[in-house]
Each structure stands twice: as structure tokens, then as C-alpha cells.
Design goal:
alpha+beta; Glycoprotein, Type 4 Pilin; Dna Ligase, domain 1; 2 domains; 7 helices
Length: 203
């Protein structure tokens, strides 16, 4: 996915996400935002996932696959929801806030992936590039491209995604599922606290 956000845009989104996160955890409304001060890239329709981590541990992750409003609003909403509404975790409490790291993933529009046989998916999916959506009827689940770092084998990746969908891991081999892929532009608070160092010129 080609970058659509400048570093300044990313810094603003991370700041807004942090403010929305802290307000939600303290039971307060999100702080008011003057949208006229934002760049067009942040006001465009867009969708995101916001991931919270504590050390190496996931603490919450919520997002959307299809855009319904401005990107900056989408990020703020999901930052608050990741803290309070991820069913896999208890709600974040104020004492945790200093230890949490925020990662934002801005998604491209998911597109159908055409395939003939289940094993075709093993070659069509691009590890560490493609986010994947599996759907069967009303059941649907997705993994962000970052999940490939923990599950690099495509067969295992698909199996775990079937489990996330609430089905047996071998379902993707037995039944034709609707498959979509998307890409993300991701960035973290840590990247902006510790920007890459520019090498000193040779003397």
C-alpha cells in the first residue's frame, strides 16, 4: 500500500488516538477537535485498526474493514474501543495508560481474491503484505498483515483465521470461503519517540 500520510499526519493521528484513549479510560468524552486544522488526508473517508500493547503483549485491538467517516474520527473511535470493548481483555484502567503503546493501521479497501482450489491460497497470499478476511455466511474474521510475523506459514495462518471466525482450522481446505485481501500503512508511538538517526558525514 502506497503511503498516503505524511509524518506530520501520522503524528497527529497518534496524538488524537492517545487523547481519545486516555479520555475513554477516565470515563470522559473525547476532547473537542477543530477539524479545520487537519490536513485533507486526515479528513478523507478512511478506516483503521488501533492496537494497544503492553511490552510484548497485546492489550486490545479493534478496527473496521470499511470506511464510513473521516479517518481521524475512525482512529479516535477505535482507540477508545480498543481500551474498553475488546471482548478478549478486561477494560484498560488508568494505571496502565503510561505503559501502553499505540499502533495505528490505516487500511486500503478490501478486494476479493479469486482462486480455484484451496491450495491456491497458499501461493496467492503475500506474507507480511496482505491482511486477509475470511467469510462464510454471517461469520467473518480478519488478520492484519502484522500477524504474519507471528504466523508466517500460510496454511497455519488460514487455520488460525478460521478459528478466529469460530470454525475448525481446516475449514478453508474443505469449503469454499469468500476471501478478501487488503494492505495497511502502519505506524507507532515508539517510532515517533525514537526517530531513525541520521548518520554523520564522513570526515
Amino acid at each position: 500500500m502506497a503511503d498516503i500520510l505524511s509524518d506530520a499526519d501520522k503524528a497527529v493521528l497518534l496524538k488524537l488516538a492517545r487523547e481519545a484513549l486516555e479520555a475513554a479510560v477516565h470515563g470522559q468524552p473525547a476532547p473537542p477537535m477543530d477539524a479545520t486544522a487537519l490536513s485533507p488526508a486526515l479528513k478523507r473517508t478512511g478506516c483503521s485498526f488501533v492496537t494497544l500493547t503492553e511490552g510484548d503483549n497485546l492489550r486490545g485491538c479493534i478496527g473496521a474493514l470499511h470506511a464510513v467517516g473521516p479517518l481521524y474520527e475512525d482512529v479516535c473511535l477505535h482507540a477508545a474501543q480498543a481500551a474498553l470493548e475488546d471482548y478478549r481483555f478486561t477494560s484498560v484502567v488508568p494505571a496502565e495508560l503510561p505503559r501502553l503503546e499505540i499502533e495505528i493501521s490505516v487500511l486500503s479497501e478490501p478486494l476479493p481474491l479469486a482462486y480455484n482450489q484451496p491450495d491456491d491460497l497458499l501461493h496467492l497470499l503475500r506474507p507480511e503484505v496482505d491482511g486477509v478476511v475470511l467469510q462464510q455466511g454471517l461469520r467473518r474474521a480478519t488478520f492484519l498483515p502484522q500477524v504474519w510475523e507471528d504466523i508466517p506459514d500460510p496454511a497455519q495462518f488460514l487455520g488460525r483465521l478460521c478459528e478466529k471466525m469460530g470454525r475448525e482450522p481446516g475449514l478453508w481446505r474443505k469449503t469454499r470461503l469468500d476471501v478478501q485481501t487488503y494492505q495497511v500503512e502502519k505506524f507507532t508511538e515508539a517510532e515517533f519517540r525514537h526517530p531513525p538517526q541520521t548518520a554523520a558525514p564522513d570526515r
